[in-house]
Structure formats: C-alpha cells, structure tokens
Specification:
244 residues; alpha/beta; Rossmann fold; OB fold (Dihydrolipoamide Acetyltransferase, E2P); 28% helix; 32% strand
C-alpha cells in the first residue's frame, strides 16, 4: 500500500512516517506540507491512501479532498486533526475515517486496513458548514493529459456553460471543467453573479455594462475584452451589483 503523508508540521509528518515504517506492506510514496502540494503529489505519485491533515495553510485538507475526489483514480483519504472542535461526528456518520492527534500506531493500522475510496456524497456531507453550505474552495481544479491544473478563484473572470462542460476564464487563460453552473453558483454565491442562464461573472472583475449593436446589454470585465450578454431576467440583479 502506497501512502502520501500530508501535514504542515514537519514533526507530525516524521511521526507518521516512523509509525508506518514499522508496518508491513506500507510504503511511504512521499510527503506534502499543504493541500496544494498534496494535489500535485497525488497526481504524480498515485498513492493508494493519503493521510491528510485538516488545518493547513495555502489549502486546507477539506478543500484538498474535494479536488482529490475529481481525480480519475482518487486515493482513499484518512483525515488527521489535532482539534476536537471539528465536526468529527460528521466523519463518523458518513463512514469517513479520521485520526485524532496524537495518533497511535494501533489506530493508524486500523484506519489503513479499512481505508476506502472517497465518494462525492460522503465528501459533500462532511464539507458542509454550519449553515448547510459546502466548504467553498479557494481554487478550481482541471485535468488534462493526466495532470492537474489549479486556478485561484480570485483570478477567475467568469464561468460559462457549454453542453456538459464549463469554461473557466481566468487572468492567465482558460480551462474546461465538468461541473454545473448551479453548483458553482451555490458554492461561490458571495463572489459571483449570474448574468445569464449560461454564465456567472466575478463581482471583483465586473466594472460595467454596455449595449451591443442589437441593443442587448453586455457586461464589461476588468482585464478582459470579452463581452458577455446579460439576459433580461438577470438585468436587475446586475444593475444592483453595479449600483446603476
């Protein structure tokens, strides 16, 4: 069994490595210090199991797990945490394993023996916050040629749906993802505005509106020459967002 150890504390990683080295059939494929590093390492190393700390800088374990679940062959995930105030009951209720620090060798062996693949229903239940909303990601992940690409949500100009794919237009180009605009709208409701049945635009990049030659309104976005049409039904909300 190949495992990836993910924790922002070097001592915690060293302890887990020491514990697993005493176990037959366990091979530590690598280590990572945050969720972002974990994604690239998982894509490159294809571990069977990831020991994933929850609270980390750059990208926390809950968000990393959301991205890991989109991999073609996602690894099993065992969450680790030093904090009893996390909703550990949610992990138990949805059959996802976790280890409470300090981690004991017997408990680690037990978790590894029963490690199961992460599924979307379990993950959705565990990552909901106290308001019932899904833990909003700081990045969007896209997959191409077996590689994972991360785009910071702060850099996204808009999402535009086209059949089963959504184009994510960002300051450095664009990527395609498999998602629904509805789910993206729910997840990023604070930062994006629906302007059409097929498009969400970033509030931070929305700078104005103009009329095209056909008399239809289009939004103007900071840092882009793209013009996206505003539907009649969404026009009042866009005007409110622009305070016009």
């Amino acid at each position: 069994m190949r495992i990836l150890i993910v924790d922002d504390e070097a001592l915690a990683r060293a302890r887990l490595r020491s514990l697993t080295e005493e176990m037959a059939g366990i091979d530590v494929a690598g280590e990572a210090a945050n969720g972002k590093q974990a994604l690239f390492a998982a894509s490159e190393l294809a571990p069977d199991v990831i020991l994933l700390d929850i609270r980390m800088p750059v990208m926390d374990g809950l968000e990393a797990a959301q991205h890991l679940a989109t991999l073609k062959n996602p690894p099993a995930v065992i969450f680790t945490t030093a904090y009893g105030d996390h909703a550990l009951a949610a992990f138990e209720a949805h059959a996802m394993d976790y280890l409470l620090k300090p981690i004991r060798k017997e408990r680690l062996r037990q978790a590894l023996d029963k490690a199961g693949k992460l599924n979307r229903a379990q993950l959705h239940a565990v990552t909901r916050n106290e308001n019932g909303n899904t833990h909003a990601r700081t990045h969007i992940s896209s997959h191409s040629a077996g590689k994972i690409q991360l785009v910071a949500v702060a850099d996204i100009l808009y999402f535009q749906a086209d059949n089963k794919y959504v184009t994510v237009r960002h300051t450095g180009g664009e990527v395609l993802i498999e998602a629904s605009l509805k789910s993206l709208e729910e997840e990023f409701a604070r930062h994006f505005t629906r302007i059409h049945r097929n498009a969400l635009v970033a509030n931070a990049h929305l700078i104005g509106m103009t009329k095209n030659k056909d008399g239809h309104y289009e939004v103007m976005l900071r840092g882009s020459d793209d013009r996206l049409e505003v539907s009649r039904s969404h026009l009042p909300l866009v005007k409110k967002r622009l305070k016009v």
